[in-house]
Amino acid sequence: MQARGTVIGRRKSTWGPWPAAALAAIAIALAATFRHYSVTASLLCLLAVSVVAQALGLRVGLLVMAGCALLLNELIFPLNPYLVASISTSAFVLVSSTFCLLQGRLPAAQRGESRALALVRLSQQLSQTSLEAEAWDVLSRHLQTEFGEHVIVKEGDRPSGFSHWYRFPEGKAQVGLRKAPEEEQLLEAFLLHSLQAIGRLRLAQQVRQAEITQAREKLYQALLDSISHDLRIPLVSITGALSALLDENFSNEPDARRDLLENALLEADQLRRLVDNLLQMTRLEAGALRVAKKPYDLWEVVTVVLDALAPQFVGRAVELEIPDELPLVPQDPILIGQVLRNLLDNALKYSPAGSEIRLEIRTFDDRIEVSVLDRGRGVTAEEERQVFEKFFRGQEPRVHGSGLGLSICEGLVAAHGGTIDLSPRVGGGLKVTFSLPLQEQPCPKS
Amino acid sequence: MPKILIVDDEPSVRRFIRGCLQVAGFETSEAGSGHEALEALRREQLHCMVLDLGLPDIDGLEVTRRLRSWSSIPIVVVSLRDSEEEIVEALDAGADDYLVKPVGVKELLARLRAALRRSDTPSGETVFHSAGLTIDLAGREATSYGKPISLTPTEWDLVKVFLQNAGRVLTHAQLLERVWGPQYLEDLQLLRVNVSNLRRKLEPDSKRPIHIVTELAVGYRLRVYDPEPV
Fold first, then answer.
1. Pairing state between β B219-222 and B97-100
2. Is the N or the C terminus of chain B less surrounded, counting Cβ atoms within 10 Å?
3. Low pLDDT (below 50) residues in chain A
4. Measured between alpha carbons, how far is B127 from B227 in angstroms, rounded to an integer?
5. pLDDT at position A304, please?
6. Which of B220, B215, B206 is CA-nearest to residue B163?
7. Which of A272, A295, A303 lies closest to B209 in CB terms?
8. Cβ of A300 and B208 within 8 Å?
9. Which of A292, A296, A306 lies nearest to residue B85, judging by beta carbons?
């Protein structure tokens, strides 16, 4: 694009109307002269001149046409040839001046149009920005395109050569304009538009900040509620059991003691899991999760998790549908183990005793999919998205757990570049599937 | 009676470990920091150390390195969860095994005993018995639950390393280096394939191994059971 404006018009004649006038005069003189010899010859002369004139871009073409018409008229209604000549010349001068005037105006009109277009383009691009920095980029680019070296955007010292300076409020940027009054208007229009856009973006940013603060406060509240309740419940059984052990009434009741102790141990484990979950959630929130990925066999993760869950799964089996050979998947096996554990734990908690729990693994070209299926109550359409929110628990009577499980799963899987979602099953129950890419993915920023 | 040094900056944790060890018949000594630990090791006659990795002054890894420069007594490192990298570092620096807090008494004693066994294994014993497994290194014979097993030379090398460290964890790097050599330190696929093959031959259910057990993100461990089948 040209640096200097976008005016594309016809080449302005540098000699003004005089060459055209001379040619017209010659044409008319010729016509008048040859008129006696042959009308056709005269007409042909005029036509020839007219064509040449048009080719040269002179506006005399039209005039000569007018000359032809007058000549024709004269043939039918003969007049004094000198009168014809003078009328033609006057007509020519009139039309030529009009043309020149218009032509003089034309570039200006075209400039006006191109400025309007430039402003429209600027507005359009500004309306698509969502960050203040982007708006500044757009403005700078458009200033460069429309004004080239006549305009400069600078912070701090003002270089010489620029006569007008505009400063943006609440900022250090200044826009300088070289002395060129016709561009002042356009520049000011540009700057005004940009100012409005930037103002809008700043406001949007403030709204976003407020929303983030609000969400964070809501989370803190949920966290406090969770700590207050979920962490203290297990302590009841633990403290209770230990104090009972110290009591002489229990020293002769081995069965009762055993019962209390086993319960206390389970509760302590529950407490530990809760603390681990809260810690993991905090890490995810703070973007402080460390993912140590190595190519690992998912079978090993499955085995370790099933062994760890064995005490909870007494009386319930997990059916495995896993191919014998699995490809190595880049993963942090501890974190993926947590995901698997959370999902199996949920299946256990939310489905009736004796109902089926399945673990399926499927390999695809680019990813591996792990699914946990149960025959529990499933989720409603509304809950489908909600279940991934922190501290969300279903409508069920209060089940053990913080409500963080799925939210953490989502965070851990995302840290591997994978996805997780759930769907109800035909016949009742839930299927939760998470996928892991088979190729190393760059760790996404939280 | 073996005397065990308990190193942890938390008095309550030391108290718990002390209680467990003394009930099991061990003598104990305690240290609350890395410097205290090194001092105790120089001054006293100690047979084993339980070392917390989260010490306030010098970290457990450094203590391990320094001790290893002049002593080969068994070291069991203890750490909080989510520090598998730390654990692997300590193991590669010479620690014998690890525990993750909170730790149960059974596991604590099992690993300590396995670690102590290393230092007093008589050289004559080459037949390994554990649950349904019988492995004779010298005679190159192995049976799994009555069935004779034929192992490849590489698999024998791998078995040998496991037997020499029976009951103790071995990191991926340690296994790869000792069986294949230092240039194979990163070849997890190679190790995985061979362990998988070994499991298929030795384990009653290769998908739920009970002998060669996975230590996630750390390595593998050959469990030691009483000769009676589980």
1. unpaired
2. N
3. 1-13, 445-446
4. 12
5. 94
6. B220
7. A303
8. no
9. A292
Tokens of B91: 């193991």
**Residue contact B192–A297, C-beta within 8 A:** yes
Please report the pLDDT score of residue A6 as a whole number.
Answer: 31
pLDDT in tens, A122-140: 888 888 888 888 888 888 8
- In this prediction, residues B183-198 reach a mean pLDDT of 92
Query: In Å, how far is B222's CA from the nearest CA of chain A?
Result: 15
Give percent above pLDDT 90 in chain B.
70
Half-sphere exposure of B58 (CA within 13 A, CB side): 14
pLDDT exceeds 80 at position B227: no
Cα–Cα distances in angstroms (integers) from residue B180 to residues A170, A185, A276, B175, in the given order: 67, 79, 38, 8
In the Cβ-directed half-sphere of A155, how many Cα atoms lie within 13 Å? 6
Residue B192 contacts A, CB cutoff 8 Å: yes
Residue B127 confidence (pLDDT) above 50:
yes
The interface predicted TM-score of the complex, written ipTM, equals 0.87
Q: Is B94 left (phi over 0), alpha (psi -120 to 50) or beta?
A: left
Among A370, A361, A283, A293, CA closest to A333:
A293
DSSP 3-state of A295:
strand
Which amino acid, A111?
Answer: R
Please give the residue of chain A at the shortest CA–CA distance from B200. Answer: A324
Answer for the pair B222, B163: CB distance below 8 angstroms, yes or no.
yes
pLDDT digits (tens, 9 = 90+) for B39-94: 999 999 999 999 999 898 998 899 999 999 999 999 999 988 777 889 999 999 99
Encoded tokens for B115: 């670690």
Decide: A66 and A91 in contact? Cβ < 8 Å: yes
Rounded Cα distance between A92 and A20, Å, is 9
Choose among A306, A320, A337: nearest Cβ to B216.
A337
pLDDT computed for residue A19 by the predictor = 65
pLDDT score, position B125: 66
Contact A434, A420 (CB under 8 A): yes
Smallest Cβ–Cβ distance between A334 and the set B84, B188, B189 belongs to B84
Mean pLDDT of B114-128: 72
**Angstrom distances, CA of residue A353 to CA of A279, A424, B127:** 30, 19, 45
pTM of the predicted protein model: 0.67
Which positions in chain A touch B81 (Cβ < 8 Å)?
Answer: 276
B205 at A interface, C-beta within 8 A: no
- Position A184 scores a pLDDT of 79
Give me chain A's average pLDDT, please: 79
**Which ranges in A351-402 belong to alpha helices (H)?**
383-386
Kind of pairing, strands A318-321 and A357-363? parallel
**Chain A residues within an 8 Å CB radius of B214:** 300, 303-304
Q: Which of B82, B106, B198 to mutate to test the interface with A (most CBs of A within 10 A)?
A: B82
Structure tokens, A315:
């009386």
Chain B CB within 8 Å of residue A309 CB: no
Token reading at A101: 């005037």
What's the confidence (pLDDT) of residue A134? 83
How far is A300 from B214, CA to CA, in rounded Å?
A: 7
pLDDT digits (tens, 9 = 90+) for A146-166: 888 888 887 878 888 887 888
